[in-house]
Amino acid sequence: MPAHCINRRLALAQRDGQAAKKEKEALYADPQWRKDNYIINRDSAGANPYFALQKLMWGNKRFVEGKSIHPRQDADVINTLSKGQAPFATIVGCSDSRVSAEILFDQGFGDLFVTRTAGQVMAQASYGTIEFASGVLGTKLIVVLGHSYCGAVDAAIKLPENPPGHVVTLINSIKPATKRYFGISENLLDFAVKQTLSTK
Q: Which of 13, 44, 65, 161 has the fewest beta carbons closer than 10 A?
Protein backbone atom coordinates (compact mmCIF):
# COMPACT_ATOMS: atom_id res chain seq x y z
CA MET A 1 0.00 0.00 0.00
CA PRO A 2 1.40 3.47 -0.92
CA ALA A 3 2.71 5.57 1.96
CA HIS A 4 0.17 8.36 1.39
CA CYS A 5 -2.69 5.84 1.73
CA ILE A 6 -1.26 4.48 4.98
CA ASN A 7 -0.84 8.01 6.38
CA ARG A 8 -4.42 8.86 5.43
CA ARG A 9 -5.76 5.75 7.14
CA LEU A 10 -3.73 6.53 10.26
CA ALA A 11 -5.03 10.11 10.29
CA LEU A 12 -8.62 8.91 9.95
CA ALA A 13 -8.12 6.34 12.71
CA GLN A 14 -6.65 9.01 14.99
CA ARG A 15 -9.55 11.36 14.26
CA ASP A 16 -12.07 8.61 14.93
CA GLY A 17 -10.22 7.71 18.12
CA GLN A 18 -10.39 11.29 19.39
CA ALA A 19 -14.10 11.50 18.57
CA ALA A 20 -14.73 8.21 20.37
CA LYS A 21 -12.79 9.47 23.39
CA LYS A 22 -14.91 12.65 23.60
CA GLU A 23 -18.09 10.61 23.25
CA LYS A 24 -16.92 8.27 26.01
CA GLU A 25 -16.10 11.19 28.33
CA ALA A 26 -19.55 12.71 27.76
CA LEU A 27 -21.16 9.36 28.50
CA TYR A 28 -19.20 8.93 31.74
CA ALA A 29 -20.38 12.38 32.88
CA ASP A 30 -24.06 11.47 32.47
CA PRO A 31 -25.53 10.84 35.98
CA GLN A 32 -28.22 8.46 34.72
CA TRP A 33 -25.69 6.43 32.75
CA ARG A 34 -23.45 6.23 35.82
CA LYS A 35 -26.37 4.99 37.88
CA ASP A 36 -27.43 2.41 35.28
CA ASN A 37 -23.89 1.06 34.97
CA TYR A 38 -23.06 0.94 38.68
CA ILE A 39 -20.36 3.61 38.60
CA ILE A 40 -18.72 4.74 41.85
CA ASN A 41 -16.53 7.81 41.97
CA ARG A 42 -12.85 6.84 42.02
CA ASP A 43 -11.97 9.43 44.67
CA SER A 44 -14.65 8.04 47.00
CA ALA A 45 -13.27 4.53 46.48
CA GLY A 46 -9.76 5.71 47.33
CA ALA A 47 -10.87 7.39 50.54
CA ASN A 48 -13.25 4.78 51.95
CA PRO A 49 -12.84 0.96 51.92
CA TYR A 50 -16.62 0.50 51.78
CA PHE A 51 -16.83 2.40 48.51
CA ALA A 52 -13.68 0.68 47.24
CA LEU A 53 -15.33 -2.71 47.77
CA GLN A 54 -18.55 -1.50 46.16
CA LYS A 55 -16.57 -0.24 43.16
CA LEU A 56 -15.00 -3.67 42.74
CA MET A 57 -18.28 -5.53 43.19
CA TRP A 58 -20.12 -3.32 40.75
CA GLY A 59 -17.27 -3.58 38.26
CA ASN A 60 -17.55 -7.35 38.52
CA LYS A 61 -21.32 -7.05 38.06
CA ARG A 62 -20.71 -5.16 34.81
CA PHE A 63 -18.27 -7.85 33.69
CA VAL A 64 -20.69 -10.69 34.47
CA GLU A 65 -23.57 -8.89 32.72
CA GLY A 66 -21.47 -8.16 29.63
CA LYS A 67 -21.49 -4.40 30.31
CA SER A 68 -17.75 -3.85 30.84
CA ILE A 69 -16.76 -0.25 30.09
CA HIS A 70 -12.96 -0.81 30.12
CA PRO A 71 -12.17 2.44 31.98
CA ARG A 72 -8.76 4.12 32.09
CA GLN A 73 -7.24 1.77 29.53
CA ASP A 74 -5.60 4.07 27.00
CA ALA A 75 -2.14 5.52 26.43
CA ASP A 76 -3.12 8.91 27.88
CA VAL A 77 -3.76 7.30 31.26
CA ILE A 78 -0.32 5.66 31.22
CA ASN A 79 1.29 9.01 30.44
CA THR A 80 -0.54 10.63 33.35
CA LEU A 81 0.44 7.79 35.70
CA SER A 82 4.13 8.35 34.93
CA LYS A 83 3.88 11.14 37.52
CA GLY A 84 2.64 8.77 40.23
CA GLN A 85 -0.03 6.24 41.13
CA ALA A 86 -2.89 6.13 43.62
CA PRO A 87 -4.62 2.73 43.40
CA PHE A 88 -7.81 2.44 45.45
CA ALA A 89 -7.46 -1.27 46.36
CA THR A 90 -4.91 -4.02 46.85
CA ILE A 91 -5.68 -7.40 45.29
CA VAL A 92 -4.00 -10.61 46.47
CA GLY A 93 -4.70 -13.04 43.66
CA CYS A 94 -3.71 -16.26 41.98
CA SER A 95 -1.30 -16.37 39.04
CA ASP A 96 -3.85 -18.36 37.03
CA SER A 97 -4.19 -16.78 33.59
CA ARG A 98 -7.99 -16.93 33.84
CA VAL A 99 -8.33 -14.52 36.77
CA SER A 100 -6.94 -11.15 35.71
CA ALA A 101 -8.18 -8.71 38.37
CA GLU A 102 -8.44 -5.65 36.13
CA ILE A 103 -10.66 -7.53 33.68
CA LEU A 104 -12.82 -9.30 36.28
CA PHE A 105 -13.44 -6.04 38.18
CA ASP A 106 -13.61 -3.88 35.02
CA GLN A 107 -10.93 -1.47 36.21
CA GLY A 108 -8.04 0.25 34.46
CA PHE A 109 -4.44 1.37 34.73
CA GLY A 110 -3.55 2.69 38.17
CA ASP A 111 -6.71 1.44 39.87
CA LEU A 112 -5.50 -1.79 41.50
CA PHE A 113 -2.22 -2.77 43.16
CA VAL A 114 -1.98 -6.50 42.50
CA THR A 115 0.24 -9.25 43.86
CA ARG A 116 -0.24 -12.71 42.34
CA THR A 117 1.20 -16.11 43.19
CA ALA A 118 -0.08 -19.58 42.33
CA GLY A 119 -2.77 -20.52 44.84
CA GLN A 120 -2.33 -17.17 46.63
CA VAL A 121 0.57 -18.70 48.54
CA MET A 122 2.14 -15.90 50.55
CA ALA A 123 5.88 -15.24 50.73
CA GLN A 124 7.95 -12.47 52.30
CA ALA A 125 7.81 -10.47 49.07
CA SER A 126 4.01 -10.78 49.10
CA TYR A 127 3.78 -9.30 52.59
CA GLY A 128 6.13 -6.50 51.58
CA THR A 129 4.01 -5.78 48.51
CA ILE A 130 0.83 -5.50 50.59
CA GLU A 131 2.53 -3.28 53.16
CA PHE A 132 3.89 -1.04 50.39
CA ALA A 133 0.41 -0.69 48.88
CA SER A 134 -1.14 0.21 52.21
CA GLY A 135 1.66 2.16 53.87
CA VAL A 136 3.14 4.01 50.90
CA LEU A 137 0.40 4.17 48.27
CA GLY A 138 -2.44 4.46 50.78
CA THR A 139 -4.84 1.76 49.60
CA LYS A 140 -7.65 1.32 52.12
CA LEU A 141 -8.90 -2.10 51.00
CA ILE A 142 -7.17 -5.49 50.68
CA VAL A 143 -9.03 -8.22 48.79
CA VAL A 144 -7.94 -11.86 48.61
CA LEU A 145 -9.29 -13.09 45.28
CA GLY A 146 -9.86 -16.83 45.05
CA HIS A 147 -11.33 -18.75 42.14
CA SER A 148 -12.72 -22.10 41.01
CA TYR A 149 -10.63 -24.79 39.31
CA CYS A 150 -7.36 -23.59 40.84
CA GLY A 151 -4.52 -25.76 39.55
CA ALA A 152 -2.35 -25.12 42.60
CA VAL A 153 -5.07 -26.22 45.03
CA ASP A 154 -5.85 -29.21 42.81
CA ALA A 155 -2.18 -30.24 42.96
CA ALA A 156 -2.22 -29.96 46.75
CA ILE A 157 -5.25 -32.24 46.87
CA LYS A 158 -3.87 -34.86 44.47
CA LEU A 159 -0.37 -34.80 46.00
CA PRO A 160 1.61 -35.74 42.88
CA GLU A 161 4.87 -37.62 43.39
CA ASN A 162 8.12 -35.76 42.78
CA PRO A 163 6.72 -32.39 41.67
CA PRO A 164 9.36 -30.36 39.78
CA GLY A 165 11.62 -27.79 41.41
CA HIS A 166 9.98 -25.39 43.83
CA VAL A 167 6.46 -26.63 43.06
CA VAL A 168 6.76 -28.87 46.14
CA THR A 169 7.06 -25.73 48.30
CA LEU A 170 3.86 -24.41 46.75
CA ILE A 171 1.98 -27.66 47.35
CA ASN A 172 3.20 -27.97 50.93
CA SER A 173 1.95 -24.45 51.68
CA ILE A 174 -1.56 -25.27 50.45
CA LYS A 175 -1.90 -28.83 51.86
CA PRO A 176 -2.93 -27.85 55.43
CA ALA A 177 -5.90 -25.88 54.08
CA THR A 178 -7.17 -28.84 52.04
CA LYS A 179 -6.60 -31.72 54.49
CA ARG A 180 -9.63 -30.87 56.61
CA TYR A 181 -11.96 -31.56 53.66
CA PHE A 182 -10.71 -35.02 52.66
CA GLY A 183 -13.56 -37.56 52.62
CA ILE A 184 -16.29 -34.92 52.89
CA SER A 185 -17.07 -34.44 49.21
CA GLU A 186 -16.43 -36.29 45.95
CA ASN A 187 -15.64 -32.98 44.25
CA LEU A 188 -13.04 -31.98 46.81
CA LEU A 189 -11.57 -29.11 44.80
CA ASP A 190 -14.89 -27.33 44.34
CA PHE A 191 -15.91 -28.02 47.94
CA ALA A 192 -12.63 -26.67 49.34
CA VAL A 193 -12.95 -23.47 47.32
CA LYS A 194 -16.53 -22.90 48.47
CA GLN A 195 -15.66 -23.55 52.12
CA THR A 196 -12.62 -21.31 52.26
CA LEU A 197 -13.78 -18.36 50.14
CA SER A 198 -16.65 -15.93 50.28
CA THR A 199 -18.67 -16.52 47.11
CA LYS A 200 -21.27 -13.81 47.66
A: 161
* Superfamily name with CATH number, domain 42-141: Carbonic anhydrase (3.40.1050.10)
Exposure b/e, 49-80, CB count within 10 A at least 16 = b: bebbbebbebbbebbeeeebbebbeeeeeeee
Q: In angstroms, what CA-CA distances link 64 with 67, 82, 132, 149?
A: 8, 31, 31, 18
Q: Name residue 112's beta-bridge partners.
A: 89
- pTM for the structure as a whole: 0.76
Q: Where are the domains of the chain?
A: 1-36, 42-141, 151-196
Sequence ranges of the binding site for Zn(2+): 94, 96, 147, 150
Model confidence at 149: pLDDT above 90: no
Of 14, 49, 55, nearest to 37 by C-alpha is: 55
Distance CA 179, CA 106 (A): 35
Task: Compute, in degrees rounded to 10, the torsion defined by CA atoms 115, 140, 133, 69.
Answer: 60
Rounded distance, CA 170 to CA 122, Å? 9
The CA angle 55-61-66, to the nearest 5 degrees, is 130
> How high is the mean pLDDT of the chain?
82
Length reported for the chain: 200
pLDDT tens per residue, range 70-128:
988 888 899 999 999 999 999 999 999 999 999 999 999 999 999 999 988 888 999 99
